[in-house]
Design a protein that fits this description.
Elements: H1 3-48, H2 90-101, E1 110-115, E2 121-125, H3 137-146, E3 154-163, E4 171-178, E5 181-184, H4 200-213, E6 218-224, E7 253-255, H5 281-295, E8 299-300, E9 305-306, E10 314-323, H6 324-334, H7 337-351, H8 357-370, H9 394-404, E11 439-446, E12 449-457, E13 463-471, H10 476-489
Parallel strand pairs: 4-6, 5-7, 6-8, 6-9
Antiparallel strand pairs: 1-2, 1-13, 3-4, 3-10, 11-12, 12-13
Helix pairs in contact: 2-10, 3-7, 3-8, 3-9, 4-5, 6-7, 7-8
Length: about 500
């Protein structure tokens, strides 16, 4: 058989085999379909009456099914509501204050108070004497801010685009704009952290994608840092800012609060050190963004410069920060002077006060007055307590803590308080491990000031508030230790 004949003969054989295979496959499919229908019907009936486990199984109430793995227990209350009216033993409270006052090194320049949940003093010493509060001042600002701003809102950082007048094809002006996010990240937006929730790399990705759609490959980059006007720092804040490590001028935007790490490993939501802070945080953020654009193939003409978008600009892309409540918690937990000063300024802008450090302190003081907090002898040199010249009575700190025990406006002010034994600046300040988790406090520390204010869940079920401020102690570390002993004992009242 020649080659051509073999090919035709083979083709006929394959055709007959294919027909036979097709008939066999059709028969098998038909049988399988019938079996599937029958099995499904059986399972439906068996499931319906509980013969086999399934979504339709009915188990009468009160009858335990052996087909259910594990066991179900009724929910139990973890903790009942706090008893805000539970009385405090006056003698025991006075004994704690006496022990504190008698501690060698504390000296005589101190004020201390213990109050109930309504702010009524149970025991106190020198409550009417104004003293420098250090960072306990932040609790005042936090309460005023949290009862004024929308703490569920976020900061937005955007890029705005407008054509260059008379420019070359493919060129445009891009403006980096933010309404106050000083915790921008240099990388991708990070949903797992507060610091870096909004990432400049994410903003760059979104912006570049939009630029390419418009055939724009070269831009002039500018950044808008006009939000907080000309004066960005309280007058006397430099005296307690050695090496520029405690404060930098507030800005409309910054990466990691302006901290300039030099390769040290660190958790972005934890302050393991206090590196020098940039004096030009907004410019630095724009420089980071410029580099990110270049890495993605967009040519940037020269260095980013300060400037504002015109009314012809259109929004290109936006990234959002953590909520203001989360940022406030971060601020208090780390006692961040820059962020609390920024919050004070935002409160001034919200209430129509002057866009200045003085406007910020006035806005805070006015709001506290409206809330019934004692402000008669309150002098705020700033919103953070870092500057020289601030003074307050402990009754003001007690008034703030009384509000922190309540739900409603201002509640976010208590969310970032340090929990001794667990988190924050007072994490390692407890003398009694049995008090772990029962206090929420704000610490204060300056060269001649050690202070603390907070609220306490008492072991007997009640609550209390307290404040203690020591100025010019005879022995700073002994006085600080005395505060630790004092606050740890409060849970037993």
């Amino acid at each position: 058989m020649d080659t051509e004949a073999q090919q035709h003969s083979g083709h006929g054989m394959h055709a007959r085999k294919a027909d036979h295979t097709t008939r066999d496959r059709a028969w098998r499919i038909a049988v399988a379909a019938v079996l599937t229908v029958l099995l499904s019907a059986f399972y439906f009936v068996a499931d319906r009456y509980g013969w086999v486990p399934g979504p339709l199984t009915i188990v009468p109430i009160g009858k335990t099914s052996t087909m259910l793995s594990g066991s179900v227990q009724s929910a139990k209350t973890i903790a009942g509501p706090a008893d805000l009216g539970k009385p405090i033993d006056k003698n025991a409270a006075n004994a704690l204050i006496d022990a504190f006052a008698a501690t060698p090194g504390v000296g005589g320049d101190f004020s201390v108070a213990i109050a109930d949940a309504n702010g009524q003093f149970v025991a106190s010493r020198n409550p009417d004497t104004p003293r420098e509060p250090a960072s306990t001042m932040k609790t005042l600002t936090a309460l005023a801010v949290s009862s004024t701003l929308d703490m569920g809102s976020t900061f937005h950082t955007s890029t705005m685009l407008e054509p260059v007048s008379g420019g070359k094809a493919g060129e445009a002006t891009l403006t980096l704009n933010s309404d106050g996010d000083m915790l921008l990240g240099a990388g991708q937006s990070d949903p797992h952290h507060i610091n870096g929730r909004a990432g400049l790399a994410t903003l760059a990705d979104q912006t570049v994608a939009k630029l390419r759609k418009r055939d724009i490959s070269r831009i002039h980059l500018q950044y808008d840092d006009t939000l907080f006007g000309a004066v960005r720092s309280p007058a006397n804040i430099a005296s307690h800012n050695p090496g520029n490590s405690n404060y930098t001028s507030i800005a409309s935007m910054a990466v990691d609060g302006g901290r300039q790490w030099k390769g040290e490993p660190h958790d972005i939501d934890e302050y393991t050190a206090y590196p020098e802070m940039s004096t030009t945080p907004a410019h630095d953020a724009a420089a980071v963004f410029s580099s990110l654009l270049s890495q993605r193939g967009i040519a940037v003409d020269g260095e980013a410069a300060a400037g504002q978008a015109t009314g012809k600009a259109t929004r290109v892309a936006t990234v959002g920060s953590a909520t203001l409540a989360e940022v406030m918690a971060f601020t208090l937990r780390h006692s961040d002077n820059t962020l609390i000063e920024e919050f004070g300024r935002l409160t001034a802008l919200k209430t129509g006060a002057a866009n200045s450090p003085e406007g910020a302190t006035k806005a805070v003081k006015d709001q506290l007055g409206k809330m019934g907090v004692e402000t008669a002898n309150l002098n705020m040199a700033d919103c953070s307590g870092l500057s020289e010249g601030s003074a307050l009575e402990v009754k003001t700190l007690i008034g703030v803590q009384t509000h922190n025990l309540k739900a409603g406006p201002g509640a976010a002010a208590g969310e970032g308080l340090s929990v001794p034994g667990f988190v924050g600046t007072a994490k390692r300040r407890l003398e009694d491990p049995g008090a772990n988790g029962l206090l929420r406090v704000k610490t204060g520390s300056l060269d001649a000031v050690t202070s603390m204010a907070g609220n306490v869940s008492r072991k007997n079920g009640g609550v209390l508030t307290f404040a203690v401020v020591v100025n010019r102690p005879q022995d700073y570390f002994a006085a600080r230790k005395a505060i630790d002993v004092f606050m740890s004992a409060l849970v037993g009242l």
